[in-house]
Amino acid sequence: MGLFHRLWTKSTQCKALEQSSGKLETLFFESVYRVTYFSGWAYLDNSVIYRIYSGILKLSVGFLICCEVWQLISASSSLDSIIENVNVTLMHLIALYRYINMKENKTIYRKLASAMESPYFDTSTPRRKKLVRFWSQRNERFLKLLLGLGSCTLGAWHIYPLVDDIDYNLMISARFPFKYQTPIRFPIFYVIVLIVFNYTSLFVMVNDLIMQAHLMHLLCQYTVLGDCFENIIEDCLREKNKNDERHVIKTEEFKEKFLTRLNDLVEQHKFILNNTTELKKTLSAPMLGQLTASTMLICCVSYQATKAAGPNNVKFFMSLLYLMYNLFELSIFCKWCDEIKLQSENIGNSVYCSGWERGLTATPGVGARLLLVATRARRPLVLTAGGLFDLSLASYTSLVKTSYSAVTVLQRF
């Protein structure tokens, strides 16, 4: 494992890591940057070798998606064949759309990734360092879960063509502009399609990993800010005699220090809110497409799984894993977006617990600032899909119920 880790670290050293704004960005995004680099979709690396490598992969992925769409338009006749093709093609198309949107807004995403290097972001206490470690470790854990579940799904997808009764069958439904159904050509073509399909699937997972990392990165900033508000007096008293707290709080020196500290936290709150608003705008249209696509995919894959149960256990297992990946992918998006709403709202509670009742609101400017922050926190930022649906666990539950209802309708045909 040590040799593999060293090889992986050396072979995936990319410009994104070299141009990282600091250790906190690296902490949250290192694994995402490395996987993106390996998949060929890193846009900061411009070396000749990488551009050739990336160009070949992008052309291959694009060609495969075109062949899938061609098959869907021209050769799909029955409901089963249409559903089988849609299951893959739709996932690839929505991932391509999300990537294009992300590339068009790369300046915003670069700003979001470096947000923890803000001069107002304070991780000076052991508790805040622990909060940062908690969210970074959670991000890494869910990254591995997504990659693991996706890899298991791919494994089942590779096995299915080898055990079915169809000659010259591939793991995907696609129409190619040349004949490969010969004993000599098929093994070679099968390996090529397998490699390209793996990279196409990795491209889908990379989009999910990038989005998850940004959401959890933002969540960490909200929780640290909440802790800063709750412990603002303790931070200002750090070098003072806490046994004589009442006397120290009344001094002009402390009031000035408190007001300066409060101004920094207000600026950090505004900074996070602006970043959340920008993320909301860039996510809105892609997530509407993702939500629509996921509804269709959950419905189609569930139908395929119910049809395959019993007659074809391998296909059933393949469909089940694919369904699990789609459900898990959508659930974590909705979960983290829901959590952002709760954490942004929780800033108001943190302000209330900041110790304002100890007489500090009598200081000019303190009461107004605390009230403005608390009032703004009462209107939490809600990430939406096209402004039509909130990205929340409640929306996720409704989507799954709708998909289940659609499956029962499909089963009648």
TrEMBL record:
- Molecular function terms from GO: odorant binding; olfactory receptor activity
A Gene Ontology biological process term: signal transduction
Membrane topology is: Multi-pass membrane protein
Subcellular locations according to the entry: Cell membrane
Q: Which residues form a coiled coil?
A: none
Its transmembrane ranges are 56-76, 82-100, 142-160, 188-206
Q: Name one GO cellular component term.
A: plasma membrane
Main subcellular location: membrane
Pfam families noted in UniProt: 7tm_6 (PF02949)
Give the record's keywords alphabetically. Answer: Cell membrane, Membrane, Olfaction, Receptor, Sensory transduction, Transducer, Transmembrane, Transmembrane helix
What is stated as this protein's family in its record?
Belongs to the insect chemoreceptor superfamily. Heteromeric odorant receptor channel (TC 1.A.69) family.
* Cross-referenced PANTHER family: ODORANT RECEPTOR, ODORANT RECEPTOR 19A-RELATED
Q: What is this protein called?
A: Odorant receptor
Naturally occurring in which organism (per UniProt): Euphydryas editha
